[in-house]
Design goal:
Blueprint: E1 3-8, H1 16-29, E2 34-39, H2 41-44, H3 51-68, E3 76-79, H4 85-94, H5 99-103, H6 106-114, H7 121-135, E4 141-143, H8 149-166, E5 174-176, H9 211-220, H10 237-250, H11 254-260, H12 267-293, H13 296-325
Parallel strand pairs: 1-2, 2-3, 4-5
Bound molecules: tryptophanyl-5'AMP (TYM).
Tryptophanyl-5'AMP is lined by residues 5-9, 17-18, 21-22, 40, 43, 130, 133-134, 142, 144-145, 147-148, 151, 182-184, 193-194.
Length: 328
C-alpha cells in the first residue's frame, strides 16, 4: 500500500481553503492509502504566536481532521513535536540543503515580508523540516494546495541528493495538487489566495464561522464586472472562485453550475445559494467538531497513540539515514 503524508499548521483558524485544498482530499485518499496526517506545531512556531493559543490550536487542528472524516483506525494522526525524529531528520537534511535553494522559497519571501522584525532561522529552515516530515515515512504522495508544491519539490531534491551522496535511502515523494480547489482565493480579493494571515476576516471563511457570519462574508464577497455566472479565472476571478467553492461543497461539476445559472441576471441570488451550500456543508462538520472538543482527553489519546505508531515507522528511516552517513 502506498503512503500518503500531509499536515496543517496549527496557526490560528483553519479556513475553507485549507479544507477544500487539502483536508477534503485526505478523506478520500485514506480509503486506498496508508495515510499519515500530522499537526505540524513546530512549523507553527516559526511566525509570532501565543503559547496558550498554540496548544488549543493544536487540539482543534486534530479535531478538524477527525471531524472532517479522518478515521484514526485507518490513518495515523499525531502532533509533530511528539515525535523527535522530525527535528533530528531536519538537522541531517540541513547539511545537504543549500542556502540559495531555501532563499528561493516563495513562502519564505512572503512570510519575511509579513513579519519583518521576526525573520528567524526556523522560518528559513521551514521547508527542510517539511522535507523531514515527508521523507521519514517513505511517503509516495503528498496531497497539498498549490502554495506547498514548491516545498514538496524541495523534499524531492533533498531526497535525490541524499540518495546520490550516501546511497539509496529515501523514497522520492510526489505532490498531489487537485485541479480544482488547489488555490481558493480570498473573498475580499480574488487575486490573492485565501489566507489565515490576511488583514481582514472578510478574506476567509473559518470552518467554525456561524451560518450568519458565513452568509455575511459571502454576501460582501467581491464580484466581477458583468453579471454572467461563468468560470473564467482570468477575466472573472471572483465568480470563478465562488463557483469553485460551490462546486467543491456540493460535489457538482462547475459546468453543471454554469448551466444552472445560465439565465440568472444578478450575482446576489447566486451568492445567496453559494452561502447556503457552504453552510449546509459545514453544519455537520461543526457539530462533530464541537462534540469532539468536549472530549479533549479522547483527542489527546488518539494523538498519543498516533505518535507512538508514527515513531515506529520514522525511527527506521532515521536509523537507516544515520547509518548511511556513518553516524555510529
Ligand atoms: P498550511 O497549514 O499553510 O496549509 C494546510 C494545507 O492547506 C493548503 N492551503 C490551501 N489550499 C487551497 N487554497 C488556499 N487558499 C490554501 N491555503 C492553504 C496548503 O497548501 C496545505 O496543503 N507547510 C505546510 C504544512 C506542512 C506539510 C508538511 C504539508 C508541514 N509539513 C508535510 C504536507 C507535508 C503548511 O504550512 O500548510
Amino acid at each position: 500500500m502506498k503512503t500518503v503524508f500531509s499536515g496543517v499548521r496549527p496557526s490560528g483558524a483553519i479556513h475553507l481553503g485549507n479544507y477544500l485544498g487539502a483536508i477534503k482530499n485526505w478523506v478520500e485518499l485514506q480509503k486506498n492509502y496508508q495515510c499519515v496526517f500530522c499537526v505540524v506545531d513546530y512549523h507553527a512556531i516559526t511566525t509570532p504566536f501565543s503559547p496558550k493559543e498554540l496548544s488549543q490550536n493544536a487540539l482543534e487542528t486534530a479535531a478538524t481532521y477527525l471531524a472532517a472524516g479522518i478515521d484514526p483506525k485507518q490513518s495515523l494522526i499525531f502532533v509533530q513535536s511528539h515525535n523527535p525524529d522530525h527535528t533530528e531528520m531536519a538537522w541531517i537534511l540541513n547539511t545537504i540543503a543549500r542556502i540559495p535553494e531555501l532563499e528561493r522559497m516563495t513562502q519564505f519571501k512572503e512570510k519575511s515580508e509579513e513579519h519583518k522584525s521576526a525573520i528567524n532561522m526556523g522560518l528559513f529552515d521551514y521547508p527542510v523540516l517539511m522535507a523531514a516530515d515527508i521523507l521519514l515515512y517513505g511517503t509516495d504522495i503528498v496531497p497539498v494546495g498549490e502554495d506547498q508544491e514548491q516545498h514538496v519539490e524541495l523534499a524531492r531534491t533533498l531526497a535525490r541528493r541524499f540518495n546520490q551522496t550516501f546511497g539509496e535511502t529515501f523514497k522520492i515523494p510526489e505532490s498531489m495538487v487537485r485541479k480544482e480547489g488547489a488555490r481558493i482565493m480570498g473573498l475580499d480579493d480574488p487575486n490573492k489566495k485565501m489566507s489565515k494571515s490576511a488583514e481582514s476576516s472578510l478574506n476567509y471563511i473559518v470552518l467554525t464561522d456561524t451560518p450568519e457570519v458565513i452568509k455575511g462574508k459571502i454576501k460582501k464577497a467581491v464580484t466581477d464586472s458583468g453579471s454572467e455566472i461563468k468560470y473564467n479565472p482570468e477575466n472573472k476571478p471572483a465568480i470563478s472562485n465562488l463557483l469553485t467553492i460551490y462546486s467543491l461543497v456540493t460535489d457538482k461539476p462547475i459546468e453543471q453550475l454554469e448551466k444552472d445559472y445560465k439565465d440568472h441576471t444578478s450575482y446576489a441570488d447566486f451568492k445567496k445559494d453559494v452561502a447556503d451550500a457552504v453552510v449546509e456543508f459545514l453544519t455537520p462538520f461543526q457539530k462533530k467538531f464541537n462534540d469532539l472538543l468536549e472530549k479533549p482527553k479522547e483527542i489527546k489519546k488518539i494523538l498519543e497513540d498516533g505518535a507512538k505508531e508514527a515513531r515506529e515507522i520514522s525511527e527506521k528511516t532515521l536509523r537507516e539515514a544515520k547509518k548511511k552517513m556513518g553516524l555510529i
